[in-house]
Design a protein that fits this description.
The chain is built from 8 helices and 13 strands. It has 296 residues and is α/β, with parallel strands linked by helices. Strands 10-9-8-11-13-12 form a 6-stranded mixed β-sheet, with helices on both faces. It is globular, with a radius of gyration of 22 Å. It binds guanosine-5'-diphosphate, magnesium ion (MG) and zinc ion (ZN). The site of zinc ion (ZN) has 7 residues, from helix 7.
């Protein structure tokens, strides 16, 4: 009987998977049968492996179902999205922030809203954004450059498998480096010679962090292009709407112009933030538009 172990796929390179089981790292091949079954071993997967005589191993089973899985970048089982936005330069776009947050909700992941670059933002601008999200999500106001607020961010990330998401230029790579110098992520420094980034992250990889948690280093979730949600589902992706759902006059209320709408009443009395409601309406109309285009 060969020894069997269970671990996490932390990277995949050229047909090999690297599985971390406790303190041990195994270079593995996957069973051929996975292909036939349509299973693609993915960074973040929980893998059952069988050790071979030469120290390598076979992956014979992937734990399914996964908590979530993404194609670009190809990672699985993300506990938490650290959604990074610059508090200034560029001015944050609330519609885009909410698109990221809704996508995280849709994938059953936690969210930490990380407001970066507070060293160059005005306290008024920082407070304005914090006021919208506080009470819905943990909000960490940080500067990756001055390292302000990083202790609080680490505390929020502790014990979770976190992936960074956010628009290009928000400071994801700088933050990752500041959190753990070992990660050495690319920070948008362009090589003079090649004009390309210095060491671009091409493959997803999981790093264990000193504070006690893991981070997916990826080329980045810089945009979530498609809002993969239905009209009915969208309202449930706004956690603060939940207490009001089911309390509208009409059971199928979309919370747009219907009379006696509990959600809109919550907006007018300030229990739901106006900007969040605006994002909901924008997304709902986008979903409806996509639906119409599908049948044309
Ligand atoms: N002032 C300031 N600049 C920052 C901060 N974090 C990142 N930057 C700068 O913003 C630019 C984009 O950062 P980068 O980490 O490459 O962003 P990414 O595209 O999200 O990975 C770089 O020039 C960084 O030096 C910060 O906290 N404060
Ligand atoms: Mg980057
Ligand atoms: Zn309603």
């Amino acid at each position: 009987m060969r020894e069997k172990r269970k671990g996490t796929i932390i990277k995949g390179i050229a047909g090999f998977y690297y599985v971390k089981a406790g303190d041990d790292l195994y270079q593995c091949k996957a069973r051929g049968i996975f292909k036939k079954e349509g299973i693609v071993p993915t960074v973040g997967d929980i893998a059952h492996i069988e050790l071979l005589e030469d120290g390598d191993a076979w992956i014979y089973e992937i734990e399914l179902p996964r908590k979530n899985i993404f194609i670009r970048p190809a990672i699985a089982n993300v506990d938490c999205f650290v959604t990074v936005f610059a508090a200034a330069e560029p001015t944050p776009n609330l519609r885009i922030i909410d698109k990221f947050l809704v996508t995280a909700e849709k994938n059953h992941a936690d969210v930490i809203l990380c407001l970066n670059k507070i060293d160059i933002a005005s306290p008024i601008d920082i407070a304005a954004i914090r006021d919208i999200y506080e009470g819905i999500y943990p909000v960490c106001c940080v500067s990756a450059v001055t390292e302000t607020g990083l202790a609080e961010l680490k505390e929020a990330m502790r014990g979770k498998a976190c992936a960074f998401a956010g628009p290009s230029g928000a400071g994801k790579s700088t933050l990752l480096n500041a959190l753990n110098p070992k990660a050495d992520a690319e920070t948008g420094v362009i090589s003079q010679k090649t004009g390309r980034g210095k060491h671009t992250t091409r493959h997803a990889e999981i790093f264990e962090m000193e504070y006690g948690g893991t981070v997916f280093d990826t080329p980045g979730f810089t945009s979530f292009e498609i809002l993969e949600s239905t009209e009915q589902e969208l309202q449930h992706l706004y956690p603060e709407f939940e207490p009001f759902l089911g309390k509208c006059r009409y059971d199928d209320c979309k919370h747009l112009r219907e009379p006696a709408c509990a959600v809109r009443e919550a907006v007018s009395c300030g229990a739901i933030q106006k900007e969040r409601y605006k994002s909901y309406v924008t997304q709902l109309l986008e979903i409806q538009e996509n639906e119409r285009n599908k049948y044309q």
